[in-house]
């Protein structure tokens, strides 16, 4: 590991308060001005992986007996279950089942989403991008039995009324799915607080989950969290996008992960495209990855949207939820088509667990 990477690692340890400054009496009796508590990294698998890699590099020149003695001396350090089991699987880059991840989720909306996915055997989210509330409610009722999540764009509904939220909630409760308002908040904290809670749409009242860009910095999460956390709501951060030429990649994606880890009681995961390719490894297993631009056949449209198949998104790209829009809502039989997508998505998930 080069000097720059090592410095970044140290700063990240400090961010999660694993590096502490003060006066500490160590087990040896020595008083130290610094204390490093690596027990905390069990909740940050991406850090766990990098530290493990670094330790393996450092241990390479040592004799086997020295390494064995070190492991024996530290074997008694306790890590609470089920967090330990989940973190070990995550650090080994093994797919952790949804049910196990529900147990370590720090947010009620995230926990419930994992539980719904497991109970209904579905990782399908339908993007109900239609022009009227009447159409949206009809589609929600048709595809409800097949989905874990319904994605809405409330600001494109020409016939929106204040009753829309309660009407959609009734359908969601009937079919046991969560509501995701794809608002893509992007302003400063104070502004998004008002946009989330107020206005004509009152998103906070009826949407279990919403999402945000991080272009304005972590303050946007603070603002949404101020209103949403107490109501059990969850937030997805846009770490990647599926449109051609988008700028959400590289350092931007990594910054989204860091912000999420700092707010894991409210941020439940990411809108992502290919989390398996992230150079810093998988994020906290309690985080959900939802990927848009899914159709039965790979390709794209005239406006730059890029499509991938359910198997590719779940099995190859390491995502958790497939987001399907036009492939279902434009179908002659949306309910039957949603069932086909649900089966394909779930089969891909089962294959990735084996």
Please tell me the CATH architecture of the largest domain by its name. Answer: Alpha-Beta Barrel
Using only CA atoms, what is the Rg? Answer: 22 Å
Arithmetic mean pLDDT: 86
Q: Which CATH class of the largest domain? A: Alpha Beta
Task: Estimate the helix proportion, in percent.
Answer: 40-55%
Kindly report the spatial arrangement of strands forming the biggest sheet: 3-4-5-6-7-8-9-12
How many distinct beta strands? 12
Order of helices and strands: HEEHHHHHEHEHEHHEHEHEEEEHEHH
CATH homologous superfamily annotation of the largest domain: Aldolase class I
Please give the domain count.
2
Question: Based on the structure, what is the oligomeric state of the protein chains?
Answer: single chain
Instruction: Specify the structural class.
Output: alpha/beta
Distance between the termini: 32 Å
Summed up:
The chain has helices spanning 3-15, 45-59, 64-73, 83-91, 98-104, 108-120, 133-143, 164-175, 189-197, 203-206, 219-228, 251-262, 310-316, 326-329, 334-353, and strands spanning 19-25, 31-36, 124-127, 149-152, 178-185, 209-212, 234-238, 267-271, 288-291, 299-300, 306-307, 321-324.
Account of the protein in words:
It is built from 15 helices and 12 strands. It has an 8-stranded parallel barrel with strand order 3-4-5-6-7-8-9-12, surrounded by 7 helices. Strands 1-2 form a two-stranded antiparallel ribbon. The chain has 354 residues and is of the alpha/beta class. The model has no long low-confidence stretch (mean pLDDT 86). The chain has 2 domains: 3-84, Rossmann fold; 106-353, Aldolase class I (TIM Barrel), CATH 3.20.20.70. Helix 7 packs parallel to helix 8 and helix 9 (189-197) packs parallel to helix 11. It is 44% helix and 16% strand. It is globular, with a radius of gyration of 22 Å.
